[in-house]
Specification:
Mean pLDDT: 88
Order of helices and strands: HEEHEHEHEEEHEHEHEEEH
Radius of gyration: 29 Å
Length: 279
């Protein structure tokens, strides 16, 4: 059956038994060669290994697909849970694994294939990545409750930055917010810097300064229940672009394509809700 001679098979068996230090077959007069209990156990294990190897080498085998989704840390709490929940409801056979990090780390993970796609802001990303825009989010100001400007419908960035600024200091985000001020000829006085959106909001709510954000958070209180006021900004201000990024060199991935369509629908619905909630 193997198209090899009997001595060659015997030699191969002897080498495997030497490796394990236990016999795989019992050789008895009149019955020939039969597997030992240990041999039957190993035979089952080898069959499983062969099946796994065949599955891994079969380009048509899908199995249970996994989407490794990278998420920029400030976008994650606002959008990732709803995206994942909705995507799993639409495609119950696909498992989503979340990987949260800053933009530089996510870019590196995309380049090495550790993640399939990333939900990011389109800021300073390598040209080797394929960027798929999802939404443009305008920046806005944050004021503590009772601030003199709190009763206005909108203010300029110059008016906002008369007070000290609490600045997001994540890579790229920091430069983006400072550039908004510099484009209007302003050098803001920085009171504090933080990498946490909720820390920034809480510090503003406690009167430690004003804030600039682009992450769309509609709540009017901080973690400690102090009031915080979201203030639209007038003038021309470059928006934060939310996008999906994936390796440009990779072939189209059906799972990533499905997630893109779901994310696109999600952000279209989010934009519609935002318009409905505007006074």
């Amino acid at each position: 059956m193997l198209n090899v001679s009997q001595p060659s098979v015997s030699l191969a068996i002897a080498k495997v038994e030497e490796h394990f230090g236990r016999p795989l077959f019992a050789r008895t007069a009149g019955q020939g060669v039969i597997p030992t209990h240990y041999g039957r156990q190993k035979l089952r294990e080898f069959k499983r290994l062969r099946a796994e190897a065949e599955s891994a080498l079969n380009a048509e085998t899908v199995g249970n697909p996994i989407l490794n989704l990278g998420v920029f840390s400030t976008l994650g709490p606002r959008h990732a849970p709803q995206l994942v929940r909705g995507f799993q409801d639409e495609t119950p056979g696909i498992q989503v694994r979340l990987h949260e990090a800053n933009l530089e780390t996510l870019s590196g993970w995309l380049e090495t294939g550790e993640i399939d796609v990333a939900l990011i802001y389109d800021l300073g990303l390598p040209s080797s990545l394929d960027i798929i825009p999802l939404a443009d989010i305008p920046p806005y100001g944050l004021l503590p409750g009772g601030h003199p400007l709190a009763g206005r419908k909108a203010i300029s960035i110059a008016e906002l930055l008369q007070d000290p600024l609490i600045l997001m200091n994540l890579p790229h985000s920091r430069g983006y917010f400072l550039s908004l001020a510099q484009m209007h000829g302003i050098s803001p006085k920085i009171a504090y810097e933080t990498a946490s959106v909720e820390m920034l909001r809480s510090m503003v709510a406690n009167g430690l300064g004003v804030g600039l954000l682009a992450t769309d958070i509609p709540h009017d209180t901080a973690y400690d229940q102090r009031p915080i006021i979201r203030m639209p900004l007038t003038g021309k201000l470059a928006p934060h672009r939310v996008a999906l990024a994936r390796p440009g060199r990779m072939q189209s991935n059906p799972v990533v394509d499905q997630f893109y369509l779901h994310a696109q629908s999600y952000f279209v619905a989010e934009a519609a809700r935002s318009q409905e909630n505007k006074p």
